[in-house]
Amino acid sequence: VQLVESGGGSVQAGGSLRLSCANSGFTFCNYEMSWYRQAPGKEREFVSSITFDGSSTRYAASVKGRFTISRDDAKKTLYLQMNSLKSEDTALYYCATALGGGSWWGQGTQVTVS
Q1: Tens-place pLDDT, residues 31-71
Q2: What is the maximum alpha-carbon separation in the chain?
């Protein structure tokens, strides 16, 4: 199982970024996927999730209306479109899934909003 995030970077407040998470080693289309983030000195927090079939999504209150989660099963890739970014969105962003009785995480991609 491997999850690899990309797309992070530095952006000014009000800007946009799209994060990607490439997946391998498991049947991607069968699993719910999530995004989490961890800011310096803070605990990791839930950002968004999407069901295995894409029919339902959830968002943290802090990002609702600004972030959009999506998935492309053909590419085995999870996305997070982030608009109207704020300084408080600065964090290391992780994608994650639960399978085989455990949780799997990527290495994270850094998002810095100034």
Answers
A1: 999 999 999 999 999 999 999 999 999 999 999 999 999 99
A2: 40
Residues 48, 70: Cα–Cα separation, whole Å: 10
Locus of tokens 């968002």:
59
Number of Cβ within 10 Å of residue 30's Cβ equals: 11
Q: Do the strands 109-113 and 9-11 form a parallel or antiparallel pair, or are they unpaired?
A: parallel
Residues 89, 48: contact at Cβ < 8 Å? Answer: no
Whether residue 12 contacts residue 114, with contact meaning beta carbons closer than 8 Å, is answered with yes
Q: Residue 67 in contact with residue 59, Cβ under 8 Å?
A: yes
